[in-house]
Automatic annotation (TrEMBL):
Annotated keywords: ATP-binding, Nucleotide-binding, Transport
Cellular component GO terms held in the UniProt record: membrane protein complex; plasma membrane
Pfam families: ABC_tran
Transmembrane segments: none
Top-rank taxon: Bacteria
The ABC transporter domain, residue ranges: 11-248
Molecular function terms from GO: ATP binding; ATP hydrolysis activity; transmembrane transporter activity
The keyword ATP-binding is annotated on this UniProt entry: yes
Family annotation (PANTHER family): ABC TRANSPORTER RELATED (PTHR24220:SF685), IMPORT ATP-BINDING PROTEIN (PTHR24220)
SUPFAM superfamilies registered for this protein in UniProt: P-loop containing nucleoside triphosphate hydrolases (SSF52540)
Protein name as catalogued: Peptide ABC transporter ATP-binding protein
Length: 249
């Protein structure tokens, strides 16, 4: 349960700086970012190409390390973990959905969904996984291979896989970027119901105001900095805000 005053952060970064390269060619991809992703909420991250969205997500998720500052999953500071513990944390406490689905082509739908659990030697919660399979609507496709599915179906498998181990937080980097609008809407609906009906936490990078409209809050990045945020976004309000940024820059 979260308290009314200060919702628990499923993930957060504090004074996060990420510099790629060095010398004249150094790129400051994150420039002192403080952000908290509350548990039980759906947060979207928007901003122009190159603004640091993927970098923020990767550093918050333990896929990449910060140059300075700190990243936490729950109360665990990622910078304090050795490689082995970091690998275990990524496997057990974080879920990922990527633009390119990243399913294993030789495994069936059912095997793909439970892959993170199987790798961990965990049985997982059968009832939970069963419920997930119904939520993503894949019960009649469980023994198919990814190549036998549409893009939207493949991404629904990836969503089920991301939630299978009941991670603290699921990070999705442009999960609808390769989908037509109808399949995209289905995937966004799934992410939304995982948060609202299954008490999950989702952080999603997107370029699409319609996608961002599914979130509880939108964070706007520009040049590696958090420049704005919007509660209870709608696609129209997000679009207006993005236009306002373009005018200013
Ligand atoms: N591995 C890397 N090496 C060097 N520079 C990088 C690397 N990854 C990202 N950058 C740079 O860091 C900045 C932020 O990149 P990032 O990928 O986080 O942007 P983004 O907001 O996700 O963009 P997009 O919307 O195009 O995916 C960019 O200037 C990018 O060129
Ligand atoms: Mg990106």
């Amino acid at each position: 349960m979260t308290t009314a005053t200060a919702p628990r952060a499923a993930a957060r970064v504090v004074d996060a700086v990420k510099v790629y390269g060095g010398g004249d060619t150094a790129v400051r991809a994150l420039d002192a970012v403080d952000v908290s992703f509350p548990a039980g909420r759906f947060t979207a991250i928007m901003g122009p190409s190159g603004s640091g969205k993927s970098t923020l997500m990767h550093c918050a998720a333990g896929l990449d390390t910060l140059t300075s500052g700190a990243a936490y999953i729950g109360d665990t500071e990622l910078g304090a973990l050795d490689d082995r513990r970091l690998t275990l944390l990524r496997r057990d406490r974080v879920g990922f959905v990527f633009q390119a689905f990243n399913l294993v082509p030789t495994l069936t739908v059912a095997e793909n969904i439970t892959l993170p659990l199987d790798l961990a030697g965990r049985h997982g919660d059968r009832e939970w996984i069963d419920a997930l399979i119904d939520v993503v609507g894949l019960r009649d496709r469980l023994h198919h291979r990814p190549s036998e599915l549409s893009g939207g179906q493949q991404q629904r498998v990836a969503v089920a896989r991301a939630f299978a181990g009941r991670p603290d937080v699921v990070f999705a980097d442009e999960p609808t970027g390769n989908l037509d609008s109808r399949s995209g809407a289905e995937v966004l609906g799934l992410l939304g119901s995982a948060v609202r009906e299954m008490d999950r936490t989702v952080v999603m990078v997107t370029h699409d105001p319609v996608a961002a409209g599914h979130a509880d809050e939108v964070l706007f990045l520009a040049d590696g900095r958090l420049v704005d945020r919007m509660e209870a976004p709608t696609a129209d309000r997000v679009l207006d805000r993005l236009k306002a940024f373009e005018v200013r820059t």
